[in-house]
């Protein structure tokens, strides 16, 4: 394998293993920042050794063993042998590793979920919990997290740094909590899992429209939660939403990587097994009394699309009504934007423009590309092509995703084409 290919392979392995590696190390060293440092040390060791020896059969295990050895070396170097060896064992390193790994098992056997509950500890603010977990579990950059939160990158970086410091100072225990404490943290955990899913479903930056690995990880965590908490309606509401949204992956972009709007997607390419899983999870959430909870409502919206055999059969009036309920249960500028889109489809583009006018001055939407994109679509459907073109230009300037930008440029070209045809038809 060429040196460049080996280097790329190592980086790919590390991206895959990073979250689990950090989760295991946090259980060992009880310090998030130190765990990240040790994971980075293991990566540097792999970059040094693997080009000569080749990739090991179990690269994740190799990285973990290397990071553990680095941890032991660091503990010794810091003159903390007695205290730390009480946690990781007093015998030889080779003999202690199995004991350490056994100690890492939690009550549901999933280190990543334990790390999420740790990052979502009540000592942190809600925004801090979500930002920290997206960084640790999703491996997102501070820029990507900032876009997910519609918040500046510098603010996110400070938030993450303070969060890790707070967890270390408070000596937060790495575990999945029980009883009332578990309930207290659950809403934040659900929020974080969905933010991870959303970043995979519609990447905020880069060359790819979709990052399936993030969605897969969010779905995996959602399914674990559902098994752990079988009587929590919103756990099933979130799982239903993610299953239904993920069912459209194969149809969301063309062979050229360009996004395909929902009404134009080939519904034969939708994953009907995922749709069935989503509808079953939604039914479970509704049976548990959570029909009007935020995630269940969003899942019900996705179900309206999933049940429509063709775009023309979509029940937009029901979707508009559901968004009315959601805007009361979970008011936000983004919900308001989606409500306007639904009303434009149900009652015409002018109705959508009227609802946009009510929210367009919200600070959170000021640099948000979907706002001018939606306005441009309404104007286009209303035949106001010059105005629509300006809005698509604005959306293209705001987006940081290359495929999305190309899509907006295509909409601009469509405006020009339609304008040309209209001019040519005039006497």
Automatic annotation (TrEMBL):
Residues 19-79 form the RNA polymerase sigma-70 region domain. One of its GO terms (biological process) is DNA-templated transcription initiation. InterPro entries: DUF6596, RNA_pol_sigma-70_dom, RNA_pol_sigma70_r2, RNA_pol_sigma70_r4_t2, RNA_pol_sigma_r2, RNA_pol_sigma_r3/r4-like, WH-like_DNA-bd_sf. One of its GO terms (molecular function) is sigma factor activity. SUPFAM superfamilies: Sigma2 domain of RNA polymerase sigma factors, Sigma3 and sigma4 domains of RNA polymerase sigma factors. Pfam families: DUF6596, Sigma70_r2, Sigma70_r4_2. Residues 117-167 form the RNA polymerase sigma factor 70 region 4 type domain. Residues 185-285 form the DUF6596 domain. This is RNA polymerase sigma factor.
């Amino acid at each position: 394998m060429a040196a460049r290919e080996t280097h790329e392979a190592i980086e790919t392995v590390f991206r895959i293993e990073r979250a689990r590696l950090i989760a295991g190390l946090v259980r060992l060293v009880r310090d998030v920042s130190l765990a990240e440092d040790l994971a980075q040390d293991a990566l540097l060791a792999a970059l040094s050794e693997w080009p000569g020896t080749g990739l090991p059969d179990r690269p994740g295990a190799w990285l973990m063993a290397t990071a553990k050895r680095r941890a032991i070396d660091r503990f010794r170097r810091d003159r903390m042998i007695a205290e730390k060896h009480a946690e990781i064992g007093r015998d030889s390193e080779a003999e202690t590793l199995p004991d350490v790994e056994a100690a890492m098992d939690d009550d549901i056997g999933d280190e990543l979920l334990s790390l999420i509950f740790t990052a979502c500890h009540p000592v942190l603010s809600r925004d801090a919990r979500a930002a920290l977990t997206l960084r640790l579990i999703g491996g997102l950059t501070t820029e990507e997290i900032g876009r997910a939160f519609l918040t500046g990158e510098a603010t996110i970086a400070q938030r993450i740094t303070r969060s890790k410091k707070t967890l270390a100072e408070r000596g937060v225990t790495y575990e999945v909590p029980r009883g009332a404490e578990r309930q207290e943290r659950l809403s934040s955990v659900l929020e974080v899992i969905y933010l991870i899913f959303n970043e995979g479903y519609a990447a905020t930056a880069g060359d790819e429209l979709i990052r399936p690995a993030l969605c897969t990880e969010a779905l995996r965590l959602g399914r674990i939660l559902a098994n752990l908490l079988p009587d929590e309606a919103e756990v099933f509401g979130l799982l239903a939403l993610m299953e239904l949204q993920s069912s459209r992956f194969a149809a969301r972009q063309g062979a050229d990587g360009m996004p395909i709007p929902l009404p134009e997607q080939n519904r034969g390419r939708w994953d009907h097994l995922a749709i069935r899983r989503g509808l079953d999870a939604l039914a479970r959430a509704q049976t548990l009394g959570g029909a009007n909870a935020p995630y269940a409502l969003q899942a019900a919206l996705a179900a309206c699309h999933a049940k429509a055999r063709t775009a023309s059969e979509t029940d937009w009036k029901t979707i508009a009504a559901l968004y009315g309920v959601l805007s009361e249960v979970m008011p936000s500028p983004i919900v308001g934007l989606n409500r306007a889109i639904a009303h434009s489809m149900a009652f015409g583009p002018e109705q959508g423009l009227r609802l946009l006018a009510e929210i367009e001055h919200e600070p959170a939407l000021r640099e948000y590309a979907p706002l001018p994109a939606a306005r441009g679509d309404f104007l286009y459907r209303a035949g106001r092509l010059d105005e629509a073109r300006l809005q698509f230009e604005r959306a293209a300037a705001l987006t940081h995703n290359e495929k999305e930008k190309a899509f907006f440029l295509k909409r601009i070209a469509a405006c020009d084409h339609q304008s040309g045809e209209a001019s040519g038809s005039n006497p």
